[in-house]
Amino acid sequence: MKKINLVIGVHNHQPIGNFDHVIEEAYQKSYKPFLDVLEKFPKVKISQHYTGFLLEWLKKHHPEIFGQLRSLAKSGQVQMMTGGFYEPILAVIPDKDKEGQIRKLSAYIEKNFGTEPTGMWLAERVWEQHIVRPIAETGVRWVTIDDTHFKYVGLKDENLLGYYVTEEQGRMLNVFPISKTMRYTIPFQPVEKTIDYLRSVASEDGQRIVVYADDGEKFGVWPHTYKHVYDDGWLSDFLGALEANSDWINLVHFSEVLDNVKPIGRVYLQNASYAEMLQWALPEDLFRKFEEFEHKLKAANLLENYEEFVRGGYWRNFLAKYPEVNNIHKKMIRLSERAHAIKQKGPAVDKALDKVWAAQCNDPYWHGVFGGLYLPNLRYPVYKNMIEAEAALDKLARRPKLSVTEEDFDMDGSKEVLVEGNVLDAYFMPERGAAMFELDYKPIPFNFLDIISRRPEGYHEKLKRANNSGNQNGEVASIHDIVTSKEEGLEKLLNYDWYRHASFVDHFIGDTTVEEFAGAKYDELGDFVEKPYRSRITRKDGKIVLRFEREGRVLAGSEVPVRVAKTFEFKEGSHTILCSYKLENLSGAGAQVDFGVELNFGLLAGDAHDRYYKINGSKPADPRLRSVGSVDGVRNVSLVDEWQRLKAAVEIDRPLTLWRFPIETVSLSEAGFERVYQSSVLFFHSKIELQKEYEVSFRLTLGRVK
Predict the structure, then answer these.
(1) Active site residue 285
(2) Residue 673: what are its φ and ψ, rounded to 5°?
(3) Which of 314, 431, 515, 528 has the most CB atoms less than 10 A away?
(4) Catalytic pick from 215, 284, 475, 516?
């Protein structure tokens, strides 16, 4: 009789800071019912992976599942898998953090479930060969990776019915290829299709291995799956079929395979992730070209024969595609280096380092079919942990209460100016308009400039044909194939920014409206936005003064040479930033210009009742942070966040016209296309007759809501 070894792995993950109700729904729809069904089929062996944050949440909110898992582990039915505690992309974090995160989760599993994990789940299956050594250094013996990785180096389906050994600098690691066929049939297609596939690859010697490993949320949380998996009995039918066919389907754990079956050979894998991730990493134009290319290959029946040559981009290019994500990554790296550099270790250092590890949670570092980096609620806890870690490290290293450095923070070849203190951090990019791109408030750890600008995405073309996918022939559509929209008319919000939204962005605008300016459909008459400014830094008596200056041109009938100088003043212990502007007409002839300064504040929610505007001391008719409006004669504006007990107040030394509007992106998530609030824009401007000089000053104060 032909036999096959089947290894099953289930990966469960929730990002740090995810809403309790979202995790609770996942518990009720997936994590708990899955184990309840599994218990009814004791012959079925499964490896279970839970990320550290999820385990901590479950222990706090549903400790009963720990007892259930402990019992299943003790019986040998479940084998626990380790990985990075906070589910980082291992390839892009420091090696010491790779090892530290894996050891932390392994120790947690051993303490709570009485078993030492021997293998791990690789976050998003992002593979780079150098990760082998730090993984192996932790004692991990095996890892699961998509079969796509193996096909990229020339292996065929018939070569992937087993496992391989790889090595890096003398450290060995066993790698198991995850079957794409199994990933796409489970649980979306009838049970018989999976059984038929297993039968087709079974062999007389019974040495072949098929690996299924994928997200546990597919069993109940993904759209349309709960009814299919539980109410309609798919999971019970599947596990029952495995037991009924256990005379030829040998259900084993990964560790048992290592003990009883020899590896096929040695392999070295290319930098890769799963196929969809590689497409998502492409620039928008190539994203669409890649999709078109795949369709053409499928139509010509060529894709299956040549799929090993068809691949998208490279995961790290998310850091190039989205500069805002790159800033998160580089700040995290900077803080990790600072934490590891402290020679006298102890609980305080460990706690600060753990916050850095939490900030390595992968979800806000990329974007695909899940909201990812576009979701403020996923970025917020990352910045919160980094700001808290920084404050702790400042005390441990006894840093000055206020300091300034010039360094290539984002590693793009140009230096940024970083003002850092015990109250706030303010980061500027002189080569990009001398705009402020990060503003951290430390008493209530929050980055006011944690925002994502609007840019085209390859999937935006699908908005016009968005529709629900239903059941066909007993199959349930995969999340990758479902296209829905959370509200009508989202295509009207597809406005794209030609510059990165930040604060103290200097505009000279033509005859336009607030709506046109908000939609980035206006004429910029100056050449100051994202253009190089000279910088000068002075330090004196606990004060830091930054001066940024540029000579540019403004189209005011004819081109007029104009110098813009802006000066920022910071004081030790102060919650206030002073900014003074001076415009000079260098032509000697008068010119009428409309000059304005753009500020951004990302307060997480545009519609919440506890987040609102106050203009000239009073709430406007529509105080919501996503409201659009124009008000003349404005001298002060406050943005209030009662949820965090936080506010930002702007005072101007002369009355200006204020345009306010939200930055809202349209992104794809597992629930469909959705509008996401990113920030509230304050644009202070005025038409002026610039004869020689014009001056205006801003006072920006951050503080608590009393």
Answers:
(1) no
(2) -70, 140
(3) 528
(4) 215
